[in-house]
Hints:
Layout: H1 12-22, E1 26-31, H2 37-51, E2 55-60, H3 63-71, E3 90-94, E4 99-102, E5 107-112, E6 124-130, H4 138-150, E7 153-158, H5 165-173, E8 179-184, H6 200-208, H7 213-219, H8 234-242, E9 258-262, E10 269-277, E11 280-289, H9 294-302
Parallel strand pairs: 1-7, 1-8, 2-5, 2-6, 6-7
Antiparallel strand pairs: 3-4, 4-5, 9-10, 10-11
Helix pairs in contact: 1-2
Amino acid sequence: xxxxxxxxxxxxxxxxxxxxxxxxxxxxxxxxxxxxxxxxxxxxxxxxxxxxxxxxxxxxxxxxxxxxxxxxxxxxxxxxxxxxxxxxxxxxxxxxxxxxxxxxxxxxxxxxxxxxxxxxxxxxxxxxxxxxxxxxxxxxxxxxxxxxxxxxxxxxxxxxxxxxxxxxxxxxxxxxxxxxxxxxxxxxxxxxxxxxxxxxxxxxxxxxxxxxxxxxxxxxxxxxxxxxxxxxxxxxxxxxxxxxxxxxxxxxxxxxxxxxxxxxxxxxxxxxxxxxxxxxxxxxxxxxxxxxxxxxxxxxxxx
Length: 303
């Protein structure tokens, strides 16, 4: 018996992602806002579940987001997202746990990385991260070894939020032959008629409505060099970086070495090393990490 499974009519960049998954590659997709990232990933979620029997996790930054975006969400045409999974393929649903069991035995699981510990022991063979820049940084560190051990795949999709953990993972995998990587602004995405998905006129409308230049560069041009909106000196630091006014300094052995710290508990810890020379403060090094004990940071500062 053959089943006709309804699918989207993918944009060219989405089609490249589908082909990569079918060839057994992981996907890293840095793509601008409103380019159809989640509808594409929902189809990949189903594709992987039909391709390989196992547990397939679709992970959002928050559990509540998984429910509102996918479990209860609708597409541009007002159609429920879950209607992309044909009823004829569904053996049963668990409303409370947001899980679907398919007739081939695969499990589709929606979850939030704010409680990634709940996924330990589930042995997922697919993990899809929606808006990875907003995820708990430790979630992938715990889940990726599982995928490596069982030969699974991960899909990381997001729009940038400065040079945070998304940027670090992007830099680590962009030249890895096991990953298909996309980094696309509005100038590089098109619909099936060859027209831009987001036009320059729409961008100008957004700016007239109050969207800042920094947010335009981040959301529509996928610029990692834009700091988090609302942070101090975001624009000034971005300008300094682009203009080459940030240079590497070496410590002066004749001056005291100072440190300042923002100690994190459940969030990140940050520490600066700096020296004061006359009217100048020389910022030498920044540590930013999660999940480490105080001794780790003390050893780093002393080294």
